[in-house]
Design brief:
154 residues; alpha/beta; 18% strand; globular
């Protein structure tokens, strides 16, 4: 599997969010070597709490496959999924999760807590972290650095 290629595609999605003044997080879902779902954050522009990159990518992948079950699929996300997105990943039965940088404030696959360690769920994905971590982290840091600089000017 071309992990770096798919993470670069997720980074392209994150940059789309950045262009729209959204938190720059991107995601792609891959099945049989083909990208079947893409998404980037859109919470601010859509005024939607569920406007997360992972949710957008999952919805698109489900439509493209004609099923809510994404068995055998992998998701590549620039930042560690939050509890809502981690839950959606598990509910959709995605097989593999690859993420770039951890999220110390809301990461649900190891940073704050690890949803895969809670017993009783019907499905657990394989989680791999730190795929192109530096690039993913730098995009987020520069976004928030720019916000803080603008706030200090006001």
């Amino acid at each position: 599997m071309k992990k770096k290629y798919y993470m670069e595609e997720a980074l392209k999605e994150a940059r789309k969010a950045l262009e729209k003044n959204e938190v720059p997080i991107g995601a792609v879902i891959v099945c049989n070597g083909e990208i079947i779902g893409k998404g980037h954050n859109s919470r601010e522009n859509e005024n939607s709490v569920v406007g997360h990159a992972e949710i957008k990518a999952i919805e698109q992948a489900c439509k493209n496959l004609g099923s809510w079950k994404l068995d055998g699929c992998s998701i590549f996300v620039t930042i560690e999924p939050c509890p809502m997105c981690a839950g959606a990943i598990m509910q959709s039965r995605i097989t593999n999760v690859y993420y770039g940088a951890g999220d110390e404030k809301s990461g649900a696959f190891g940073s704050v807590f690890d949803l895969t360690t809670i017993q009783g769920f019907a499905h657990y994905p394989h989680v791999r972290k730190q795929i192109m971590e530096k690039e993913c982290s730098e995009l987020m840091h520069s976004f928030f650095k720019n916000i803080r600089a603008k706030q200090q000017k006001n």
